[in-house]
Amino acid sequence: MPDLKIAPSILASDFSRLGEEIEAVVNAGADWIHVDVMDGHFAPNITIGPPVVAALRSRCSVPLDVHLMISDPGYYAEAFCEAGADLVSFHVEAAKHPHRLINCIKERGCKAGVVLNPGTSHDELEYLAEYVDMVLVMTVNPGFGGQSFIPAMLRKIECIRAMIGDRDLEVDGGIDDLTAREVVEAGANVLVAGSYIYNADSYIDAIESLKAAESAAPRR
Ligand code: DX5
Ligand code: ZN
């Protein structure tokens, strides 16, 4: 298993103080910063776009992990790469030409990830998995923070870990100290957490409690 990484989702942070909120979780031990991009079409919410990512770049000393929940990722991915994303992930349900988009993202110097909604089978990865740097398994439906983890995703995580070897497998939605252990045991190694971290009294304690899930990781 690759190293466990914690990626706080700024969706749950105080948007009036985004720069400070990023620095606070990085100082508390965050490995990546997860940026949720929603367009009001693919996901039933509208969040942030490339200018905000560009503004955050200089305030963020760790990789920016940009999760595109948008209808036309092929059209917009390049703008997020240029804004300073380190990793750009798009949904297989939304991409018309996923191979082309993976290449486009990599050619712009970013890592490329593909994302599966809860209702999408890991079979969709059969001809894609070998080309991506990361797979992101949605453990809630896209749109909002604070939703409940969907347990059936554990089986999907196990299947995908068997497909991608030592590459990153990220999970997103409903992650707390308890679900963290379950997903890590199933094979996930990048944990996105929004409300669990940003609603906590102590960001350090919250991040440490997620990192403790490492003891549940399967032995190689
Ligand atoms: C859901 C987003 C998630 C969300 C997670 O559409 O992709 O990143 O912010 O929030 P929590 O951790 O609160 O479930
Ligand atoms: Zn996300």
Total of helices:
8
Domains, number? 1
What gross morphology would you assign? globular
The strand count comes to 8
Written account of the structure:
This protein has 220 residues and is an alpha/beta fold. It has one domain (5-216): Aldolase class I (TIM Barrel, Alpha-Beta Barrel), CATH 3.20.20. The chain is 34% helix and 19% strand. It is built from eight helices and eight strands, in the order βαβαβαβαββαβαβαα. The radius of gyration is 16 Å and the shape is globular. The mean pLDDT is 97. Bound molecules: D-xylitol-5-phosphate and zinc ion. Zinc ion is lined by residues 9, 34, 36, 67, 172, 192. Residues 9, 11-12, 34, 36, 67, 140, 142-143, 145-147, 172-175, 192-196 line the site of D-xylitol-5-phosphate (DX5).
